[in-house]
Amino acid sequence: MKLGVSCGKMDKNLNEKLADLRLEMGSKIEVNTKLQYESNEEIKEGRFQNPPISNDYSVLVPKNAEADEEIKTKTTVEQNKKDNNNMEKKFEKNFKLIPFVSFIRRQQSLFPTTFGLYFNHNEEEFITQDMKIETNQFGNTFQYHPSTKGKEDFHGRYIKYFIRKHLANKYDVELVDRFAEHVIEYPENYQTAKNPKLKEAIKKHYKIYTDKNTTAIDIRYSIKVVSLSRSIFGERVVPRKEFHTYYENLLAIVKYLDSLTYNTMEMYPELNCEYFQAQSVILFDGDVAFEIMVSKYDLSAKRVKYNQKIIQSILHSLSYYKRTGKKIRKLVIYNPLLGEEHVVELKDIDFELLEEALDKDLTAFQSNRLHNNNNYFRILY
Fold this sequence. Notes:
The protein is an alpha+beta fold and 381 residues long. The chain is built from 14 helices and nine strands. It is globular and about 55 Å long.
């Protein structure tokens, strides 16, 4: 199955349309609210820790080597200070609201310039214009256990937690879950305040879940309990009865994960930036983003969902590049319920153009009257 067309040059008309973006930026809304950093590293060091060093020294003819070195040192310091000031000014956007990437990917109408870079709208769905999706079939479509009826969302989250646990063991990386840790630390903010058994169960099974000596296939119940943290965090009432997954389905997932030949894995790298808050991301070998889909869709709905995953990965790639100078070159979407793996090559991404488009859309979004609505604000986060 192939969706879209081969990688190529970005649409000429779109490039011309965005050529004047910098001029339009002069009329942006001024926002003074400071961006809230989440990581301790950012709080201490600032968002950009490696500013560029300029080699453009003043053209002078010193009398001796010592004078030459002194002048070069002085001009270098002054140039670096100027570069740092320019960088600070460039990223002094400090928007009032910083949405999650998951919000951006679902709101094409609010981010039309950004989506317009990569998708053509044909009334029913967004189709990639410069990329293709290659599909590999690894197994049969899962059959839901009868106990999952009405609990498909909870089941899907459980499968994601199962996959993360197995990958953490395979690549020997620390496994953490910020939702579980927050629910454990602040039980009074959630339904666990009125349900001490649930509170203690999450605390107990989270220790089992994060223990490197336990395996996913052997602690299925613990993973199930911990996965409820995401729903509790989102203020959803958890199921009263346990739901199940057929054992052979879980074995099929383990078989696929064990077949992966990547050398390294990075789980949940810091990818927040001034435009958005990143989702939980798994990176293989520093340039492959691994996404998990855990629902059964018809073909039309699948295309929309996959395209949303593509735009999410492109945005993550922007942030990753700004932080590390490295590019995410491939997106792998694994859907265990359908036994499918979808691979997208992320080529020829113009980060400067993408950043200008994102800046334009997010600036316009700040003035949207809906962001004063409390319910709408909650959707963002």
